[in-house]
């Protein structure tokens, strides 16, 4: 069995995971949204005119994880058994988003975790752009994955702020 997105003629296709064993799989990804300190203060004080920014971003991230296969070509539709999106202030000008996805299945959940973190970050941007157009979305990256044939991966600590 070849795990490639190319068929024998070189055409794109979904990887066939039929013969892969079902194992527990988990992935953790993060993203950061940098903003003006006043914007973060507005979010934290609950004074944002569009409501609870963190709550909306959390739900958006969870929904995005469940729909990753509709957004990323050739991703498998997965029956996720757990999705958790956490948002926390980091310093006076940053929101850190951590997304954790898990399942028992034949393929990993890295793309689902990365999608959840990305969409949560984009939701924060969307909700806050009227007050802070200079926000940036940074460091969308995989932090850890477990399960499957390739085993465990954890980003080196010196690469994590």
From TrEMBL:
GO terms under biological process: Mo-molybdopterin cofactor biosynthetic process
The keyword Lyase appears for this protein: yes
UniProt keyword terms in alphabetical order: Lyase, Molybdenum cofactor biosynthesis
Catalytic residue positions: 126
Gene3D superfamilies documented for this protein: Molybdopterin cofactor biosynthesis C (MoaC) domain (3.30.70.640)
Cross-referenced InterPro entries: MoaC, MoaC_bact/euk, MoaC_sf, MoCo_biosynth_MoaA/MoaC, Mopterin_CF_biosynth-C_dom
Keyword Metal-binding: no
GO MF assignments: cyclic pyranopterin monophosphate synthase activity
Assembly, per entry: Homohexamer; trimer of dimers.
Protein name: Cyclic pyranopterin monophosphate synthase
Organism expressing this protein natively: Pseudomonas flexibilis
């Amino acid at each position: 069995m070849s795990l490639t997105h190319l068929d024998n003629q070189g055409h794109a296709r979904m990887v066939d995971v039929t013969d892969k064993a079902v194992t527990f799989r988990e992935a953790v990804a993060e993203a950061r949204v940098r903003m003006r300190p006043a914007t973060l203060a507005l979010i934290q004080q609950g004074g944002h005119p569009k409501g609870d920014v963190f709550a909306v971003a959390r739900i958006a991230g969870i929904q995005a994880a469940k729909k990753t296969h509709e957004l990323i070509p050739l991703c498998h539709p997965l029956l996720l058994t757990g999705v958790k999106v956490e948002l926390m202030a980091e310093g006076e000008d940053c929101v850190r988003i951590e997304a954790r996805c898990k399942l028992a299945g034949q393929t990993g959940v890295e793309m689902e975790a990365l999608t959840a973190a990305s969409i949560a970050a984009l939701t924060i941007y969307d909700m806050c752009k009227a007050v802070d157009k200079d926000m940036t979305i940074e460091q969308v990256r995989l932090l850890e994955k477990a399960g499957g044939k390739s085993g465990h991966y954890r980003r080196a600590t010196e690469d994590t702020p």
